[in-house]
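Appendix B, record 7
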Amino acid sequence: MSIQSIEIAKQKMVAKVEKKERKGWNRFKQYYIGPIIAFIIFITLWQIIPLIFGIKHYILPKPTDVVTAAIKDWHLLWPAVQITIVESVLGFVLSAVVGILISILLASSKILERSIYPYAIILQTIPVVAVAPIIVIWFGAGYNSIVVISFLVGFFPVISNTLMGLNSVDKNMDELFTLYNASRWQKMWKLRIPAAMPFIMAGLKVSCTLTIVGAIVGEYVAGIGGGKGGLGYSITVAAIQVKTAYLFACGIAAAILGVGFYLLVSYISHLILKSWHESAMKAEK
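Structure tokens (predicted):
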């Protein structure tokens, strides 16, 4: 290989690296720089306002007070976060499995759908705090009741989105399957469920954050102490003891947990859809 060819290859490689760096910087500017600036402004204002107006720390603690409280009571906060994670994940898995199975059952028969789906809507309209005491009576205070409440809160978005997806099959494809004498379950397995996957994933994304809310609400009502209480129980205790900074720390931990759970489910959704569905392919581009 001549020296000129080597130089050309080097220039191409450098140009490729520079293009990749420019693309990364443009992506950073487009997606991340705005939220980072907004976050810095928010934290700065939060730190300054209590100092300017002389607001007491038990009314509105500064971010530094919240961080200090989180570090000081880390031995309480971290176990509470872990317990809420386990309860939320169990509630989410139950919501996903039961919601998808019931949706498939309802979508297979219009009579079943018209008979049962309205009751699922009615169940969703009942406030959780009204149902929670009944669940505690049935399942007892503690772990079981919290998982059931988490499941009930996260259940409806899965069933609603999945059913919508199963009923939104392309008419031409449906007729093609009919033309080839496909059975009802062949249509369901090979056409309707794959077509409903984007809807199912959208329902799971909504459900995953709701199950965390459900677990925390459940801990308010059915939480128990002795190192077995999650974030909801910790928030209740912190509010009674007027440990406002620690209460904020628990709330922020719950928010981080929700965002992390949502990002995880979104990533799994992207992995499932990226090779064939237009929405995920566009996002990747």
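Remarks on this record: The radius of gyration is 25 Å. The chain has a mean pLDDT of 86.
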